Amino acid sequence: MNIEVKGAAVQGPSMTLVPNGTVRVNAKLEFKNDPNTDLQPQGSATVVFHNGQAQGQNLNVRLEPVEDVNERSRSETHPPHGPNDESVILEHVRPGRYWIRVDSARGFAAAISAGDVDLLRHPLTVRAGANLVVDVTMRDDGAEIAGSVEGLDGASGGPDDGMLRSRMSIGFAQGAQAHVYCLPLPESTGQFREAWVAPDGRFSLQRMPPGAYRVLAFNQPQNDLEYQDAASMHTYEGKGQVVRLAAGQKEELKLQVISGNE
Known about the structure:
Layout: E1 21-30, E2 43-44, E3 47-50, E4 53-56, E5 60-65, E6 76-78, E7 88-93, E8 96-103, E9 108-114, E10 117-118, E11 124-126, E12 131-139, E13 143-150, H1 161-174, E14 179-184, E15 193-196, E16 202-208, E17 211-218, H2 230-233, E18 241-245, E19 250-256
Parallel strand pairs: 1-12, 13-19
Antiparallel strand pairs: 1-2, 1-7, 3-4, 4-5, 5-8, 6-7, 8-11, 9-10, 9-12, 13-16, 14-15, 14-17, 17-18
């Protein structure tokens, strides 16, 4: 912004400008197997940011404002300096508090930290002019949950696993609304996950971080589940199922649907 004053004092309200911050993301890959070659060396991820979201071959990273009053951070990316530079700098991040969300088709974020702050449990605070470094460790030994939801109108017997993904796409086209939520229990190493339920009542979640979860099925999406608030979660005690997942574990569940009004 350029302001020019000629011959007189500025009239009108005052304005205070503060500098935005930068966030440098370093990703360490601890993948055991490459799906194509069965050989995956340990290393760092190459990440490219666009409009507040980072996309790379192995992971996607986004900043999610804690306060609803903040819009998504409109940031710019400082590209790598060369082929050996495996980090990316997210520039022009507005001051505020952000949850760092990491998704991957290969695995899950086992650890996200900035110094001694655990960013899986606490938001990242970006102050004016801050230069922050975030370290992400990715793993691919996640657990799997599959199962069925009972009490849905029109649900029938479950398909075999090979048909589930195709039926899920049909469910999107037909406007299927039922949802399954995996809510990490207090002090658990688990991370929030959700999945659509297919029209026949089947669901599947893969690459689940190990930990303890309460798994709930609703007849419609729940956009305001305050799963990090223990008092709010008392409402669901005795509902759904509690599972404790170890690395590589596979779990089959049967859930009773919960009305969105309950």
